[in-house]
Amino acid sequence: MNLKRLFSSFRYAWDGVKDVAKHEQNFKIHLISACAVVLAGWYLQISVLEWLFISLAVSGVLAMELMNTAVERAVDLITYDRHPLAKKAKDASAAAVFVCAAGAGITGVIIFLPKIINIFL
Q1: Across the chain, how many H-helices and E-strands are there?
Q2: d(CA 63, CA 34)
Q3: CB neighbourhood size of 14 (10 A)
Q4: 84, CA 20 to 30 Å: which among 27, 40, 51, 110?
Q5: Which of 67, 72, 65, 1 shows the shortest CA–CA distance to 29?
Q6: For residue 20, how many other CB atoms are within 10 A of its CB?
Q7: What domains can be seen in the chain, in order of their start residue?
Q8: Distance CA 15, CA 53 (A)
Q9: 45: left (phi over 0), alpha (psi -120 to 50) or beta
Q10: 65 is catalytic
Q11: What is the per-residue pLDDT for 93?
C-alpha cells in the first residue's frame, strides 16, 4: 500500500468538497441544513439509532449534491450549447438530489416531530 497515494486521494476528495462548498449555493444550503439537524439532534437528545439514520440521510444528500455538481460540470465541459440530452442529464442528476433530500426530510420528520410535539404537550 502506497501511503502517499492514499493521503493524496483523501486530499483530492477534500479539495472537491471545499470547491463545491465555495461555489455551489445548493451545497451551502444543504450544509446549513445539516448543521441545524445536528444541533436539533443534540438538543433533543436523539438515540444512537436515530443518529445513525440522520447521519446516513445527511451524508446521502451531501454526496448526491456533490455528484450533481460533477454531472453538471462534466456536461458543461462537453458543451455550453443547449442540447436536449444535456438538459436531461442535468435534470436527472438534480432529481436524484431532490429524491434523496425528500427522503432525508421524511427521516427528519419521523425522528424529530414526536420529540418536538412532546416539548409542547
Answers
A1: 4, 0
A2: 12
A3: 10
A4: 27
A5: 65
A6: 20
A7: 11-120 (1.10.287.3610)
A8: 27
A9: left
A10: yes
A11: 98
Q: What is the mean pLDDT of residues 10-36?
A: 97
Tens of pLDDT, residues 35-54: 999 999 999 999 999 999 99
Query: What is the amino acid identity at position 101?
Result: A
Among residues 24, 50, 65, 72, which one is catalytic? Answer: 65
3 state DSSP class of 31: helix
Q: pLDDT tens digits, residue range 69-97? A: 999 999 999 987 899 999 999 999 999 99
Helices (DSSP H) in 24-83: which residue ranges?
25-44, 48-78
**What local confidence, expressed as pLDDT, does residue 121 receive?**
87
pLDDT of residue 116: 96
Q: Using an 8 Å Cβ cutoff, are 79 and 36 in contact? A: no
